[in-house]
Design goal:
By secondary structure, this protein is mostly helical.
Length: 145
């Protein structure tokens, strides 16, 4: 699978994840305070995003190691968008209404790289393939006498 296909699949998972988060948030809002609804919806959608990213985006086996590292994709997104909003609003004097959208768009490639690094990195316990056995040198031929 090409990187371009992975990028498209990554974007699709992002759309599904956003919809899942928002749907869960609205449903949980009927029984929980908004902060609790946000946290639960966020965690559940991130778990779903992990499995979609694993199976659909990269076609790789999910592992506990990848699962525990996966939140780094959200951390990367947060850092890039926060810095981007600051840069766009305070340094470049763009309007604060549209800055988050521009920053979010800029974060997608960075988040993709972090995600790809986590999801496609071999597990530490996966043994490396054995090297090919060395062949003994062929005996030298001597002239027949």
């Amino acid at each position: 699978m090409t990187v371009r296909v992975q990028m498209v699949r990554f974007a699709l998972v992002g759309v599904v994840n956003t919809g899942t988060y928002y749907g869960l948030y609205l449903a949980l809002l009927t029984v929980l305070p908004y902060v609790a609804a946000h946290v639960v919806a966020f965690v559940l959608s991130m778990i779903g995003s992990f499995f979609l990213t694993s199976y659909f985006t990269y076609r790789t086996r999910p592992t506990w190691r990848k699962f525990l590292l996966f939140p780094l994709t959200n951390a990367a997104n947060f850092v890039v968008t926060t810095c981007g909003v600051y840069l766009l609003v305070d340094v470049l004097h763009l309007g604060s209404r549209y800055a988050p959208l521009i920053a979010a768009a800029a974060a997608i490639p960075i988040t993709f790289v972090v995600s790809r690094t986590i999801m496609l990195r071999p597990d530490a316990r996966t043994p490396a393939p054995a090297p090919a056995p060395e062949r003994a040198p062929a005996p030298e031929r001597t002239p027949a006498g």
